[in-house]
Amino acid sequence: MRLRKLSVLLSLLFASVCLCACQQNESGTSKLEEYLETKLNSSETLEEFFNQPLNKFIFDQMVEASKTQYGDELNNVEMTVEGNRIIVKMYLKSDASGMESYLKRELNKTKDEYFEGIRQSVDLDARYEVEYIFYNSDYSKGPDIVLYEDREGYETPPDEDEILAQYQATSDSVEVEKHFTTIEEYYEDNYGTGYWEEQAQMIVDSSDGVFTDCKIKCMENYVSFSFQFAEDMGDVQANVEENLNDEEQKIIIDGIKNPTGIQDNITVGYYYYNPDGSVAGGIEFEG
Questions:
Q1: CB 3.0-4.6 Å disulfide test: which of 20, 189, 211, 220 passes with 182?
Q2: For residue range 58-90, what is the model confidence (pLDDT) as tens digits?
Q3: DSSP per-residue letters across the chain
């Protein structure tokens, strides 16, 4: 899956909500703004608002525009509204399995823009929500992510995945401090010797054909990821350094290290190879 393009698609799905407000009439006031002056007070929820004939037309056009512009990435897009939650079902032409953490992180980075875009068209006294449901190319259900607008007077429900991760890290740390001195020992004891091979295969399967092979080796407190491109990519060193910046490095280190409770630094290496075996790029970092 071309993840950067998917992120652009997600952000543009709601940008079009505001486009209709830019069509000015002779008085300088948008037709939508005039309509809202008379109809907004009659709507208590987004569902009621978008069920009104003109607004439903705008909503439907927004969905059709996304289908047309991003047809090469999606089999279909469906959008519905329930109460104050907009539900976006995205039927991908690729596989989103194993990408929930990435998608959740990217969506939360720009969620304020999504909600601001909606409020520029309809500003109800309510807290808005957006739910993204991703479907894989075989139409099996993938990640289901809910975004909540940060609004005074409303408490955002706790993230179940984060609670579980915190609990697991706290629970494991007691045992790890007693029994494990390296991440190699921890993962082998808890998940078996085939754990890293399974993770490597998952990466290849979810790469949308970008990689033909991936090997992960865990030795004491060092983990190396070796990727082989399906096509000759030449020298990608600059891209590797740009994408694996300090922030991304910390996320990777924390994801591997935190569950183990080990305090020593660990080292992670990412290496990329062209089909002929030549080195395309690589980087090592620790923390």
A1: 220
A2: 778 777 776 776 666 778 888 888 999 989 888
A3: --HHHHHHHHHHHHHGGGGGGG-B-TTS-BHHHHHHHHHGGG-SSHHHHHHSHHHHHHHHHHHHHHHHHTTTTEEEEEEEEETTEEEEEEEESS--TT-HHHHHHHHHHSHHHHHHHHHTT---SS--EEEEEEE-TTS-EEEEEEEE---TT-PPPPPHHHHHHHHHHHHHHHHHHHH-SSHHHHHHHHH-TTHHHHHHHHHHHTTTTSEEEEEEEEETTEEEEEEEESS-----HHHHHHHS-HHHHHHHHHHHHGGGT--S--EEEEEEE-TTS-EEEEEEEE-
Q: In what order do the strands lie in the sheet with 267-273?
A: 211-219, 222-229, 267-273, 279-286
pLDDT at residue 42, rounded to an integer? 63
Partners of residue 62 on adjacent β-strands:
none
Triad 84, 88, 90: Cα angle to 5° = 170
pLDDT tens, position by position, 8-26: 444 444 444 333 333 334 4
Q: To which residue do tokens 């790029």 refer?
A: 281
Residue type, 13: L
Cα-based torsion angle of the residue sequence 121, 122, 128, 133 in order, rounded to the nearest 10 degrees = -50
Q: Which range, 18-32, 180-194, 258-272, is most confident?
A: 258-272
Residue 207, both tokens: 């790469």
Contacts of 230 (CB under 8 A, 6+ apart): 209, 210, 211, 212, 275
pTM score of the predicted model: 0.49
